[in-house]
């Protein structure tokens, strides 16, 4: 019997071998569907195919084969489908969906006892998959949907397969962001991004995945994965009235990732934070986080870890915004209704960003709803806001349009005060974004943005400034491991002042900066341990440092226009997130940047060992148009590491060094007409900085409470400042009035944050110091005897408390309390007479401080009713800014009256400011 069985198997093997050797056919197909192709193959090969018709995809085939083996033909026509095949004998071929048929088990399928023990011990480790996937449909039938992904390949021995896709609302088609996708039985999980996309690694075979979302139904799916593939999730809206629901995906991100100094701002929840005049303000909320501050109310920009305002890279859809504020900092120029994500990097700046020393503020707008019309509006005491989303091609493309404006100008002109009747206070901003999903692998988005300010209060001068940006982004997914984006942006910023009075000195003055950038950004997942981020970029600068021209024929002002500066900046980078072990994660990147100052320019050459003045010029070097004048550059390291001390406690460390090729020149702490932008050039070197940071991060209460303490030390060089008594306004040879020196800053940041529950919010405290050292070769290039002195933005103590309390589903209370050390200032300390004239004697620069700043804000929020069927959702916000009526100084200045020097103080909001605003979503 045994011999007979062996002989039968040999004969069967010879039969199959002979059949495959003689299985050559000639056949051709011209744009024929796959079902017809299979029928033709049956006729041409005299074989019988067994399959279910619903397995056959609607695919067109155009191909021609001449005496080609049938197995090769089948491999070719099925290669982009989920179909596999198996030869039974000469007349029978079985088609299978996803899986393959095994006629023998692979070697090592039944491990030895010792191997079984090792496999159990290494359950959470990677393994080399060579075994077939077995699944019993009958035993696992039920309410849980079973989904098969990918086409099994016996030659593919991957340890993990990639499941990717997109989650969207079944009714509206709107992407579902921040939805958790969890792998049951493990600690593995991911969350969808702002556009609803996700990507998760699964072992071959059966996996149970579960979704968790506040807005949509939670589902469980049984995923049988044979290869890389796609699973899109179309989910119903969650209309069930629930208690508190928390999304746990990425809840421990602050502990688990390798980045130090990274802060994410919850755009949705900033509506509960009481701010001036009821405006939601992304930038103001940022200053309530540790390590981020500004010089005071009414100041533009912010200071991060002891850096200047111009050392922050502010991006809106990858395009640079030079002034992100209205009314010189009272309002933000970023529309919260159109903003999807906002992330601040103040420690470990990723290698893909460059050109600034202190931080990156990366803001991304939302993608418009491609299914149906929706919008949001608000009405406040001085401003109104409206944002709408309109489908263009259903499920493919849509446009988002947002606009804000103020009617404060109309209010001023209707007041009884005559001086205020002649005042102007006007701003508006508008944004439009078109997003088009070409297919599952290609996406296009285009953004345009404009903001404009015009401001004059009881003054002869009208200040105005304008931001314009345009951004085009094309994203392509090459495969499950590789994707990239091609980005083009343009940014333009203008500042102007118009001065008119009754005398013959009317004028217009201003400056302008324009930059254009092209960038290729790529991501590649090599394996579970290595994920690469790499790319190249190029940027062209055009800077008009300043001009002045007369207004009217009677003006005595002489026209002056400084020479335009041009420069080109290029960068290339590569970074790797390397998982060394479960405890140790490294993020290592290198960026190389280079900058060239371009002609046309006549460069002064000054006598060596002499101060740069008009009297020490010895030569003039001429450079033609686009001719490189001088080139700077070098490598920038971006290194960080995370190590788990406990499952919910980690220690992180990082090191960064950065270059900055553009500078702001100012001898004031806020935006003024004497400000100007200058590029690095022959006489002005680029700024450089390096930062070290170390921090401990701990979560409590199932990741609901975050705590962190982080210290940093930063040094910088070539910091640009002005000589004592410098004249920066319309100075063609500004190198004669500025000096470059050293900077250092250090600090300790503490954050306690409760993310959910009826009572939530955060407490932050920062102790920081920021110093400058200006020690030139000559007396007029030395400040404070060449010693380190506090910078304009040195504030040792900064405390913020933000709290929210939900009384019911409709009623909630919020409060802010802020305390900051007063910023440094230079005081007059006396006067003296010389040659018949009186002169003021000043202290060392920034030797004194203005009074400390503190403020308490309160608000009450009234949500609309929670009916399931209604036109839209609304809420009221009642807030009081500066409840204590603290007369916080905006600036301190000195005047001479009756021969006496008197100190004066100006404030922006010295009394409580009540506000009522109404918001409506539809």
Tell me about the biggest sheet? 22 strands, antiparallel, barrel
Q: On the 0-100 scale, what is the average pLDDT?
A: 82
Q: Report the total helices.
A: 8
Fold-level CATH name of the largest domain: Maltoporin, Chain A
**What is the CA–CA distance across the termini?**
80 Å
Class computed from helices, strands and strand pairing: mainly beta
What is the assembly state of the chains in this entry?
single chain
- In terms of per-residue confidence, which ranges show pLDDT below 50 for 5 or more consecutive residues? 1-21, 113-131, 240-249
Instruction: Specify the overall morphology.
Output: globular
Tell me the name of the CATH class of the largest domain.
Answer: Mainly Beta
Q: So, CATH architecture of the largest domain?
A: Beta Barrel
**Portion of residues within helices:** under 10%
CATH homologous superfamily classification of the largest domain: TonB-dependent receptor, beta-barrel domain
Number of domains: 3
The proportion of strand residues reads over 45%
**Radius of gyration, CA atoms, in whole angstroms:** 33 Å
By DSSP, the count of extended strands is: 57
Summarize the model shown.
By secondary structure, this protein is mainly beta. It is built from eight helices and 57 strands.
Describe the overall structure.
The protein has 922 residues and is mainly beta. The chain has three domains: 2-97, Phage tail protein beta-alpha-beta fold, CATH 3.55.50.30; 143-240, Carboxypeptidase-like, regulatory domain (Immunoglobulin-like), CATH 2.60.40.1120; 262-921, TonB-dependent receptor, beta-barrel domain (Maltoporin, Chain A). It has eight helices and 57 strands. The strands form 13 sheets. The chain has a 22-stranded antiparallel beta barrel. Strands 6-12-11-8-9 form a five-stranded mixed sheet, with no helix packed on it. A five-stranded mixed sheet has the order 15-22-23-18-19, with no helix packed on it. A hairpin with a 5-residue loop joins strand 8 (180-183) and strand 9 (189-191). It is globular and about 120 Å long. The chain starts with a helix and ends with a strand. Residues 1-21, 113-131 and 240-249 have low confidence and may be disordered. Residues 1-19 form the signal peptide. This is Carboxypeptidase-like regulatory domain-containing protein. It comes from Christiangramia sediminicola. Residues 279-356 form the TonB-dependent receptor plug domain. Keywords: Cell outer membrane, Membrane, Signal, Transmembrane, Transmembrane beta strand, Transport.
